[in-house]
Request: fold
Amino acid sequence: MKNNLLIIFCLICAPIYSTNPLYGLLERIDKGASAKMELVLSNDTTSSNFFHIESDCGKIKITASDYASMGMGINWYLKYVAGVQPSWNNGLKVKLPEVLPTNNLPIYRTANHSRRYYLNYCTYGYSMPFWDWERWEQELDWMILHGINQVLLMTGLENVWDSILKRLGYSTDEVNDFLCGPAFLPWWAMNNLQNWGGPLTSHWHQQQAQLKDSIIQRMHDFHIDPVLPGYAGMLPSNAGEKLGVNTTDPGLWCGFQRPAFLLPTDNAFDSISSIYYEELTNYYGIAKYYSIDPFHEGGSSAGVNLNLAGQKIMEALKKCNPEAVWVIQAWQDNPRMEMISGLEQHDVEVLDLWCESRPQWGEQNSLWYRPDGFGKHDWLYCNVLNFGNNVGLFGKLNATVNGYYDAINHPKGRQMKGIGMLMEGIENNPMFFELFYDLPWYKTVNLQEWLDLYAFYRYGKFCVECGQAWKILAQTVYDCPTIQEGTSESIFCARPDSVVSKVSCCSVVDLYYNPAELQKAAALMLQVADNFRGNDNFEYDLVDIVRQCITNKGLQIYNSMMDAYMQQNIEQFEDYKKQFLELILDQDKLLSTRKEFMLGHWLQIARNKATNKEERQLYEWNAKTIITTWGNRTTADDAGLKDYSHREWNGMLKDFYFCRWQMYLDALSCKLNNKIMPNIDYYAWEQAWCNQKKQYQTKPACNLLQITNSIYNKHFK
Reply:
């Protein structure tokens, strides 16, 4: 009997190698790593999220309250003790020491909050539209390593709608007229547009269904809560006529016709919402969290009883799952408080999207200040950081960190349940993501001390020059004092004009820091580059910092060039014109050294998704269009979507931006020389480029340090 009890006790206390999915994660990070660690789930269900790291019998033992906390514990050990960082730049592959270090152990951390959210609808268009399972698996590993336990999931949502609309009597062609192409599905899901960039093929639907199965299985394995798109009333714009239901027209979004909005007071709302949740549940399974954003980004709510609409939306949601929580974004006028104020506490989770710039939770100095915050409802402190997945060093470190702790200590912080990153694009500014998801595990953060440690684990060893470089970065590019949307944009990517204040509709090209200071950071990194040869994280950062320096010089040369043009100084203009165009080509060459900055890599991912020639053409057109014109002529030129998702990438610079600038500058040369200045139809030229079948380089140049040194010395020595 005693022996049986001992066996049972050992089985309860021992790590469950066969069922704990984080052992598989360790093997993907470094083969053999799972044998060096012991992972134990605590059976204490009363404690907050925590992890405990200690040395035990020659192994590193990590005990945690849940898998997300355990993943954070693994990452904490890897970074702060072992001095390695699995990151996007190295494909989450690191080499652990043969004998794992035990310095500074034990470590015990408790989370300030229980919820840590990830992903924006836009991320699915600007970063993820053509991902396969291999890339998704890597991202899910990245999520669990950062303690993330709530993730927006919309992969395959178009299949749900295909089933819904066919049940309502729509044909396959009519469904295709409603859905959008792969890169534009997020804005369709957000009720912003329909019938753009498609049609989707049967192969696409099958692939996405299989991919969804793999994603949701891994999310379940990791105990990550999927946040599924819920139902607010979206229907095809012809639904009123075809189905005989009472709909309103929410108007236009950036020139696109929005889908119709089925009034919740209509008798059909209950039946159609039931069909929606039946098909959604059949496809994804039941969930606790559902993302619903009526009237997103300016959609008209005219004629809608908001209070009743909120009640009906919640009723439909609770019918699907009585424990369901409505997740809604705080962005511009949303959420309309009339829609959620009458709902029960804890039934709503508000994502305060842009806390680094315009928080709505109750910060009085914010331009989007809400005196009552979100009332009784739970909310998360969120950041956007990146708009359009534009390339550029950027962040608001002080505003983010100070704002987070201000929110915790504010009376309205009682309803704050966690944090969230809702960036429009990923695989950029990795330092900011590390800091943001560290915040819940610190009571306070000393930024300089944190940055010193970041430079250590990012590159695998302490380096005085790297530490100095990061101090400069923190005081320049990562200390944006304004409310601008994302990075100061690259002049190279702008549609040419004699006065350029911005590239996309919403940001600026002007700098908020002294570019000479950033050059010092680049010089410091170059001084020690030979010591980090082959270090993925270091080489990515080095190229990114030098890239930013070249971009900044481009703005300086552009301003001088346009001054010379206005003064009709032909000789000076031609000299600056030569320098400016040469900078674009040098930037293109620099960025050929990293796949993260290559157009060819982006297009290859899109092509790999295709099963035939027609799909390849469609997917490549989607991949090119979303980073150039975005929409048709009206939406691009008049509604401001052109270049919203511009990319300072190898291939794009030489073949798109260089050619566009050369056409314009040659036209200015004609005017200065009293010749007829040709008219340029940019949209026609851009769309012709999107339809080209040209192949672009997919493998990075192998002589990264030589190219980087050469280009930096050419322009800054």
